[in-house]
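In the present case, backbone shapes were mapped to integers, as reproduced here:
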Amino acid sequence: MPPKVLVTGSAGQIGAELVPHLRSFYGDANVVAAVHKAAGPPSLNDGPVITLDTDDPDAVASAVRDTGADTVYHLAALLSATGEKDPQLAWKVNMDGLRNVLEASRKGGVSRVFWPSSIGAFGPDAPRKDAPQNAPLNPTTIYGVTKVAGELLCNYYFVKYGLDVRCLRYPGLISNVTPPGGGTTDYAVEIFYEAIRKGSYSCFLREDTVLPMMYMPDALKATVLIMEADPSRVIRHLGYNLAAFSFSAGELAAEIRKRIPGFRVSYAPDSRQKIADSWPMSIDDSEARKDWGWSPGYDLQGMVSDMLTKLKARLALR
């Protein structure tokens, strides 16, 4: 029997692609997309959609009960740059929502929960290159603070209650389907839109800023892989490091320029530069590779080619 899945934050960057991806495995009717507002993106309309405010514990408990979910992917969150504009709201959305989902899951008979951590969990005292799984986690953003606290809370629910919570520390994610959502790595999505539409882009990070990144198909692959893994292979219930490739803003621009000659980029670093400078340039994900068989399918060149092909086709239809 396929699992009965509830996905919160389904209208977000990950959720809008994860829901159709999960439905392709488990069937449209078995994956319920929960969105905060009444209308979600069209990608969700092939199966059941509900509205849900994860800040409301009673509503979360009702959603778990009414959908009969035995698996929950909790994706609702505020991202790094957005969180810095309203730290109190970021804590409320990211932490209260997670607590409500974990409580509803343990009381409602959910067998497995997925929650996304992030490279935002790292701080400036982590190694800049190949940050290891057990690097110090002392972030300087409220987003990062909620990711570290969230990892600890997920692990607590596993140790205390036996709830099988699984976490990935996503790098920056690049999608050709959903637009940027308020993260520090959003330039790596915006740049493709502007290259196609205008042939130029003003980047909010320095040209030499290097960050870990991943193409969304690989993020979806990793998410399903860890959730399908036998419990004996998931050694950590804190966040697993996850990696694909790292590049600088200038290197990404150069790859795009190979395919769009004359593409111009200027650099005007803003407040997000300080956030980027506090994160590692690359991370070591050897534990994920060893424990449950992770490996990425895209490198920088493959991602850029596919991203431009898919995005050009999508924008041409508008």
User: Anything to note?
Assistant: Residues 176-212+245-281+298-316 form a domain with the UDP-galactose 4-epimerase; domain 1 fold (CATH 3.90.25.10). The longest strand covers residues 112-118. The chain has two domains: 5-173+215-241, 176-212+245-281+298-316. The chain has a mean pLDDT of 94.
